[in-house]
Task: structure prediction
Amino acid sequence: DAGITQSPRHKVTETGTPVTLRCHQTENHRYMYWYRQDPGHGLRLIHYSYGVKDTDKGEVSDGYSVSRSKTEDFLLTLESATSSQTSVYFCAISQGARSSYEQYFGPGTRLTVT
Amino acid sequence: DAKTTQPNSMESNEEEPVHLPCNHSTISGTDYIHWYRQLPSQGPEYVIHGLTSNVNNRMASLAIAEDRKSSTLILHRATLRDAAVYYCILRGLKTSYDKVIFGPGTSLSVIP
Result:
């Protein structure tokens, strides 16, 4: 199994509070991704990173920011959580961005915003 | 990325082979066919991928039609642990930092 951990695994927070989710990998893969999964929407890309300090937006990036100061860590921050951000968040990694590369996913973080 | 079509659900008996179909009639010549699966309450898991030729790995086999407009994921001997949602995905070369786009997938039930 790919060495990907996410923390916390579960979190309940109140509307308006900041939240940071962490993704940690031991595979030294260059590319890291944050997705959210909601019923009826499947997996949607929030942000991705193609190297240390190199990040870009995905299709649902509003309300989220990311940082990558080390190869192994990719942080997702909700600056001011809203109920619409209640979701399951998955981190993924890949060796390359080309279409021949597979992605490996973490176990997920279930976030509830009350 | 081109679109894929999969049945919403399938059933299989335990220890029997399972053939999961995927149609991708608008596939381009440089699109790779990827399969992932997601077990309940877990993250998606990579299964297999291929371009033109059939592929085998420890988890499954991928059979790709000669015209590449369809493919089949083959689980040779279904176990209860194989009950999951299976996603067939096309990944093209057009974008540098492309993403994996998941459709609704096929929910596979395995009957003991």
Q: What stands out?
A: Chain B touches chain A at residues 30-32, 34, 42-46, 49, 51, 91-93, 96-104 (CB under 8 Å). The first strand of chain B starts at residue 9 and ends at 13. Chain B has no helices and nine strands.
